[in-house]
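Following up on my earlier message about beta-D-glucopyranose. Here are the inputs again, as you asked, copied directly from the submission form:
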Amino acid sequence: MLNLIFLLTLLTAVLAGPFDDKDAYKVSPPYYPAPEIGRVPTDLRWRAALKVAQDLVANMTLIEKVNMTTGTGWEMGACVGNTGTVERLGIKSLCLQDGPLGIRFADLITTFPAGITIASTFSRQLVNERGAAMGRENRRKGVDITLSPVVGPLGRHANGGRIWEGFSADPYLAGKLAAEAVTGIQGQNVMAVVKHIVGNEQEHFRQLGEWQGFGFKDLKQPLSSNIDDRTLNEAYLWPFADAVRANVGSVMCSYQQINGSQGCQNAHILNGKLKEEMGFQGFVMSDWLAQRSGVASTLAGLDMSMPGDGLVWADGVPLMGYELTKSVLNGTVQEKRVDDMVTRILTPIIYLSITPGNPNFSSWTNDTTSWKYYGAKAGGNVTVNRHIDVRDEYTTKAALDGANAALVLLKNVKSALPLKNIGKVNIFGIGSATGPLGAVCGENMQCSDGALIEGWGSGSVYPTDYQSPFAAIKERAEQDNITVGGTTESWGNLTKVHQLSSEGDASIVFVLSDSGESTGIVDGNIGDRNNLTLWHNGDNVVKAVAEHNPNTIVVVTTVGPVNLEKWINNPNVTAVLLTGPAGDFGGRAAANILFGDIAPSGKLPFTIAKNDTDYIPLTTEVPKDGLPQDYFTEGTLLDYKRFDANKVTPRFEFGYGLSYSNITLDNLEARYAFPNIPEFLPPPLPPVNPRKPRNNFVPRANETGFPDDIHPLHKYVYPYLNDTSDIFNSNGTQYPYPDGFSTTQKNDTNVNGGAVGGNPALWLSALYVVHSVSNYGPYDTGVVTQLYIAFPQDNDGLKTAPRQLRGFERSELKVGEQKGILYNVQWRDLAVWDVELQSWRVQRGEYHVYVGHSSRDFVLTTSFTLT
Ligand code: BGC
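Thanks, got it. Here's what our run produced:
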C-alpha cells in the first residue's frame, strides 16, 4: 500500500513535469524485508557456493556471525578494512583494500591508469586486462577484496572531485567497462566491489562531520541527491546492473543521502533495486563510516559495516559489532537477517575461491616490523611488511598498453605530430617533471606540484617507478639524436619560458588539472575542483610558449573536462593531446605518441565545453535549514546528451579523438537478433525457496560475553557484550520499525528481477549492427568506432536524449587492413524505464542508428521501425 502511495506521489510529480513538486523527490519508498540470497535461480557455481556457505552459517554461533559482518576498527589489521574471524571454523579475517587504480598504501606495486583514463581507450579488452593485472597484484599482496571499480560518481559534474576514479558519465560505457573490470579482477580470485551506490556525484557535503570541519557549521545533514525514478534506472543505477550481471561479489553504499534517505540505509536502493530487481547475490558493505544507523541500516539491506567503527573514526564504538549482537538478542533484528548477511558475505568468497588471511603488507607503516594491531598499539613486534614486489611483465604491459591507448589527439595541424625532422625540442610546464617531493608526494597523494600521476584520496596509490614525461621524452629523443631542454617555470614573468620557447623546432607544454576526495584539500580545492581552468598558470605558460614557437604542442593531463578556450585556436598551437591521469606510464605513453612509435587512438570519455556554464553545477551552498538538496533536474541528459538536447556546440564532443591515419567506415547493416522484439519484459521465473539448513545454535545472552582468553584491545571492535544487563532494557518501548516493514520474504518476483543482473530478457541480443572499418594508413593504429541510437520521441512521457551510445569497439588495424565490426545491442539497450509500469519498455516506433567517430561525427546511418 505504501509503495502505491509513493508511486502515486511520484507519478503526480512526473506528470506535473519533472521537479515541479520537489517534495516528491525527498522521499524514498520502503522496501522490506531485505531479499535473501538464493531466491533467484542462479548458475551451478553460485548454487554450489551458496550451499557451502549455508552449511557454514548453520554451524556458526551468533557471535561468530556478527564477527563476520563488522570490521575490527580503523587500523586494526593490515588493510583499510579487516573483518572479524571465526577461528573455530578456520575463517580468517578478510582483507579489504582500496582501490580503483591499484593497491593503496602498499609498496612495490603498479600505478595503473585511472578509470577515466582507461575509459578513453573505449576498449573492453584493455579494461579487462587492467582488471586482471590489478587482481593479480592484489592477490600477491594478500588482498581478498579490492574496493574497485567505481561507477558512482558516474560523472554528472565536470568538476566532481572523484570522477577520475570512475569511467564515464555515459552509463552504457561505464556499465560495459565496469563489467570487464569486475570480470578481470575476479578472474584472479580477488573480489571486486562496485561503488558507491548511488548518487555520490560530488564531494561537497557528502558527510556531515567532514564538511562541518571544513567550516560549513550550519550543515545539519549530508547532501541529498534527489533523483527521479526514471533517471535512477536509466542513468545512475544502470552500470551497477552491469557489474551485478558480471557477478560482482560486493557493492559499496555511499555517504550522502538518496532522496532523503541515507545511502547505506536506503531500503529502496539496497533491498528493492539491488537485491530484488538486480538479483544481487553478494553483500553490501558500507563506505567507511557511511553507516549512520544500526538497526535501520541492517533492515535496509546493509550486510557489512566498515571499517567497524560506527559514527566516529577509530573510537571502537560500532553500529554493528556488539550492537548487532544485542539487537538480535532483544528480538529487534531477526537472526535470519544476520544469517543472510553472513551467507551473502561467504557465498562470493567461496564462489571466487578466495583463501583469506595472507596480507603481506601494512597500510599503516613502511617499517618491516610493527604492531599487529596498529590502531591499538598492540600485538608488536611482528613482521607486517614483507615488501613483495608484485609487479610482473603482465601487469606492466597492461598498465602501459592502457596508458598508450588512452591518449586522445584533439588537434593536429601542419602535420605537427608525430614529431619529424626535429633537432631540438624544449619541454615546459609543471606537468612535465616529477614534483619536488618526488612521485609519492604525501599521504593519499594530496599534492600537485609535478606531473599528474593520479588524483588524490582513497583512490590513490604510491607510485613505485614513475617516469616523468620529461624523462621519457629525453630517453626517446636520444635515439634520434634530438636535443631536449626545458623548464618547469610557471609563475611570474616567465623569463625562462620566453627565452627557451624561441629556440627549439618544437615546444611541448605539459599542463594539468587535479582533483580528489574531500579527505584532503589541495590548493583550496576540497576534493571537487573550484573551476575548470588549468592548474599552475597553465594557460599563460601555453600562451607564452606559443608567442615564440610556431610549433607549440600541448599535452593536457586532467582528471576531467578542462577549459581550453584561451589557446585552443591559437595558430601556433599546432597539436594538442589529452589524457586522464595515466599512472606509472603516463610519461612513456606521451613520448610514444609524440614520436609516432604508437598512433593515438583514444576518444574523449567526456565533453569539453566552450563555456563552463554548459556543465551541471555543483551544490556548494548550505541552505538556511542546513539540509542541502541536490535536484538532478536534468534527468538523464548527462554530458553529450545535455549538449545535444540543448543544441549547444561544445569545443570537443564525447567520443572525439583524431588519428594519425585515414580511417573509413562502410557497409552498415542493422539486423534484428530475433523477429518481433517485444515491448515488455516476459515474467521471470518465480522465486526459488532456498533450502535452509537448520541453525545449530540458539543465541543466548549469557553466551555472548568475552571469552576468558580474549583480553580486549583498546578501540578494537568486538561482537562480544561487556554487560548483558541492558539488552532488554528498552523501557518497554518497541523499536520504531520503518513504514512498510515486514519480515516475510515476498512470494513473487519483481518483473525486472529473477536472475543475477535482473530479468534475463534484459540481456538478450535484440539487434546486431555490423559495418566494416579500414585503415588507409599511413600508420598501424588502434581504431575506436561508436554506435549511437536515437529512440522514438512520440511519447511525451518517454522522451529520451537525441542519441545514446549503444555500442563501441576498439580494433587494431595495420595499414591497408579492413575488419568487420559487430555491435550486439541488447534488449535493455533499446529500453526506457516506464515510471508508470515500474519496468523497462522497448517503445514502438522508428529508431535511427548512427555509426561514426564521435557522438557528433557520424559516417553511416540507417533506421528500423518496431511495430
Ligand atoms: C571512500 C571509499 C574508500 C574507503 C576506504 C572512503 O573514504 O569513499 O571509496 O573505499 O574510504 O578507504
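One observation from looking it over: Residues 4-16 have pLDDT under 50 and may be disordered. Hope that helps, and feel free to reply on this thread.
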